[in-house]
Amino acid sequence: MRTTLRLAHALVLTVGLAGCATSLRTPHVADLHDNPGRYQQRSVSINGVVTTSWSIPLVPYRLYKVDDGTGEVTVVGRGSRTPGRGAHVRVRGRVDDVGVFGGQVIGLHIEELELHVRR
Predict the structure, then answer these.
(1) Residue 18 and residue 116: Cα distance in Å, rounded?
(2) Which pTM value belongs to this model?
(3) CB neighbours (10 Å) of residue 9?
(4) Is residue 117 a contact partner of residue 91, using CB atoms and an 8 Å limit?
(5) Scanning 19, 24, 36, 73, which has the fewest C-beta atoms within 10 Å of its C-beta?
């Protein structure tokens, strides 16, 4: 009986910790804007719809904004493709900013590490 109880406690603790770790890696965009220091230089995944995208020929950077329903975040990609407006995407990348001025984060963005476009 004790062994079963200990095993059950260990299982509940493991599932709880895994849930906490998953929530840290898949925040909403509003969470990124509300508490950018928590996610600074960390890898996160964002699911959403591309609202705008820009790319310039012969320039290695691609920029697009992803809206997950809670807000928009700019994604900086270095890949060869830029998702078009209205595309449903899952982006994994590192959260970064340009700087902090007067306690406000300026230029919050995600540096794309991986992009999946859903059809």
Answers:
(1) 24
(2) 0.73
(3) 10
(4) no
(5) 19
Residues 106, 21: Cα–Cα separation, whole Å: 27
Are 71 and 29 in contact, with CB atoms under 8 Å apart? Answer: yes
What pLDDT sits at residue 112? 93
Domain boundary assignment for the chain: 27-118
- Look up residue 82 and give its two tokens: 């830029």
Residues 6+ positions from 86 with CB-CB distance below 8 Å: 49, 50
Residue 14 has pLDDT above 80, yes or no: no
- Give the CATH superfamily of 27-118: Nucleic acid-binding proteins (2.40.50.140)
Residue written as token pair 């306690």: 103
More confident of the two residues 106 and 21: 106
DSSP single-letter state for residue 25: H
